[in-house]
Automatic annotation (TrEMBL):
This is Reverse transcriptase domain-containing protein. Residues 70-312 form the Reverse transcriptase domain. SUPFAM superfamilies: DNA/RNA polymerases. Pfam families: RVT_1.
Amino acid sequence: MQKAEIVLTVLRKKSIQSKEFVFDRLYRNFFNTDFFMLAYSRLYAKEGNMTFGIDGKTIDGFNINLINKVIAKLKDEAYYPKPSRRVYIPKKSGKLRPLGIPSFEDKLVQEVLRMILEAIYEPMFKESSHGFRPERSCHTALVQVKQKGSGITWVIEGDIKSFFDNIDHEIMLNILKKKIKDGRIIELIQRFLKAGYFEFHKVHNSLTGTPQGGLISPILANIYLNEFDTFMEEICKEKSSKKSKKRSNPIYRRFSWQRWEAKNKGDYKTADEILTEMRKIPSVDPMDPEFTRVNYVRYADDFLVLIDGKKN
């Protein structure tokens, strides 16, 4: 069996080389013990993964026998995820956010699945996407807003209400099938989506959504929203003018000419006074009717549309 890191690198390179490349024979990676060893090392490094799921077990119970049992179930296609244990954490608004804590075995399998999906899809994601991605965060989103926001006149703020709870499973699976032609991987993801959650001594079925707290939930959310990102970027391109920059500001241009004349006459005091006034106004016409630039930035289920142009 190849090292997991090598396999992931190959998958990533194929995705970078061709956006149209379709992946198959991915499920066999779940028979590779090195994938589970890598998954464990990554889980162990994060304190939050010490929380127990419905089975009451934590990652301290990890051993090679456990891996072999999980792999045997996966080979027989008899692996069925357990319902997640639902807990609630406070939000800044004062409300409570539900989280689904997977069992330890499910965390291991989900982490292997997450690594494979990330290797395939991360190179496909848009520059406008910042949530739940390696080396990206709310800070990189703010940096992009600053870069794209120069001269903006309008901002549209959007929030996809209850996004994680309302992901349509059928649409999610159909999006995955465009890139992954491996029925066993699709079936495994479907089982995780349908696993449900345990709350108040009762198992609740999951008809829609992906539980916040699940290791594959963030990558699945980004795969789902990549369709939205593509749509929004196409709209932004369509609404932006072909003109590359705004026309020069006639007032600024007049000041520039006056300053040049003053310097030619040796009147440097007047030239400096004119320069002070020039610095108070934009060099380009902020109301150029022939210029429109529309940009889009998303972090998780929140997004901004930045408009530099007329209201209509």
